[in-house]
Write a structure and sequence with these properties.
This protein is α+β, with helices and mostly antiparallel strands. Helices cover 24% and strands 35% of the residues. Strand 3 and strand 4 form a beta hairpin.
């Protein structure tokens, strides 16, 4: 089963994005991926327990510009704060303990030094106006991240994890 550890933008940034023309939301909604992986659902409770042990302080992100990512995703590139990179590293480290054997291939492509923080906002093919500067230079404080799984083609939230600060 596919799992996703991610955080969402605050209401102000979300509302601003949703007011834009030609937005086609991803199935998982507006989100920034910390880690995506496959694992056996029987391990879910253990995964949640281990993710609950990760301590992190609230951290700031900033929106930098638009980019295309993966197959058909329009994203807002995000700043790479030390706190964000540390949270990413810790979540990946826990996920690696439970993930299926294809994890290393995913990790080499998207994680560690290749981790490019971004906020997925739409499909690239949606006709979104990339000249809009309204979404660039926005800041947000992240105080929680979430875990979800894809079940019967739909994303289902499992657990939220809050900062210790």
């Amino acid at each position: 089963m596919k799992y996703l550890a991610y955080f969402r933008p605050n209401k102000e940034l979300s509302d601003l994005i949703l007011r834009q023309n030609h937005i086609v939301l991803p199935g998982s909604g507006l989100h920034s991926t910390l880690c995506v992986f496959y694992m056996e659902p029987e391990q879910e409770n253990n995964l949640v327990t281990d993710l609950s042990q990760i301590r992190f302080n609230p951290f700031e992100i900033g929106t930098l510009g638009f980019d295309d990512f993966d197959k058909d995703s329009l994203v807002l590139k995000l700043s790479r704060s030390d706190e964000l990179l540390q949270l990413h590293k810790n979540v990946v480290s826990v996920a690696r303990n439970y993930a299926s054997e294809d994890f290393d291939a995913i990790a080499r492509q998207y994680f560690g030094d290749n981790y490019n923080p971004h906020l997925t906002i739409s499909k690239s093919s949606s006709g979104f106006d990339r000249t809009s500067k309204e979404l660039i230079g926005r800041e947000d404080i992240i105080v929680r991240y979430s875990l979800a799984k894809k079940e019967d083609g739909l994303w289902k939230e499992i657990q939220d994890f809050y900062s210790s600060g």
